[in-house]
């Protein structure tokens, strides 16, 4: 088992060609940018990577390319969650085979687990397919519709999953986050997953975070981390306020679709999103650029290097 993950972990986009097919060659450029930013890890094929819109062979190819492209010094967590348990196990076994650092899985979101015991049993089956890797549950109730108390999941899963490492906690329930961080003496690795409340997550006790907007605003979030760690709460709050404005703009333009558009604007084109998501039109992209300029986004990017 590896040590707890900490710092800033980037959830990667899955690059697509204009026809919507996977573009694995584009991963090399994205990986180089991630390494250049100084990311503390890569979270591959998660919600940012449109995992549930990819085929199993595409997810396998994407994970393998990311693992090779970022190099051995960057931890790679591969998301292997799916509604089909056998597919999850296949992806987990592959992640172990290619030398991933850990695997993660979100809850199935059509036939949903009704209790934490049901969820723990589902996750145990996945984790057993990659017994040499740490396993993280990916808690994202806004998307999966599975909103069970995570502290109760830890209680139910800790005795069933020998390689349980922790939770990628993408929820604004800070009470549950805090209880997970303190559970069993704090032995589980709980990663904060909501960019807009990163500072609150750090104040609650998280030491690591996974955030989509880290991809194109890494320096802004590094400022939150470093200001918090140095005790400069005014600077940390100011940076978090800028993050909220950035996310508010992106949300008005369609969330993930806008994030991929922002990547193109900064010169890291990831291609289109897949249906049922819709791509921004050229006009919408122009307006998005203007809105990003209005909130000072490009000045933030210029200043993102330490």
Would you give an account of this structure?
- The two termini are 32 Å apart.
- Helices cover 47% and strands 12% of the residues.
- The longest helix is centred in the last third of the chain and has 20 residues.
- The mean pLDDT is 96.
- With 306 residues, the chain is α/β, with parallel strands linked by helices.
- An eight-stranded parallel beta sheet has the order 7-6-5-4-3-2-1-8.
- 47% of the residues are buried.
- The chain has one domain: Aldolase class I (TIM Barrel), CATH 3.20.20.70.
- Helix 3 crosses helix 4, helix 8 packs parallel to helix 9 and helix 9 runs antiparallel to helix 10.
Q: Can I get a quick summary?
A:
With 306 residues, the chain is of the alpha/beta class. It has a single domain (7-232), classed as TIM Barrel (Alpha-Beta Barrel), CATH 3.20.20. It contains 13 helices and 8 strands.
Q: Helices and strands in order, then pairings?
A:
Layout: E1 7-11, H1 27-37, E2 41-44, H2 56-70, E3 76-79, H3 85-97, E4 102-106, H4 116-127, E5 135-139, H5 141-144, H6 150-157, E6 164-169, H7 174-182, E7 189-192, H8 198-204, E8 208-210, H9 214-230, H10 233-252, H11 256-265, H12 282-294, H13 297-302
Parallel strand pairs: 1-2, 1-8, 2-3, 3-4, 4-5, 5-6, 6-7
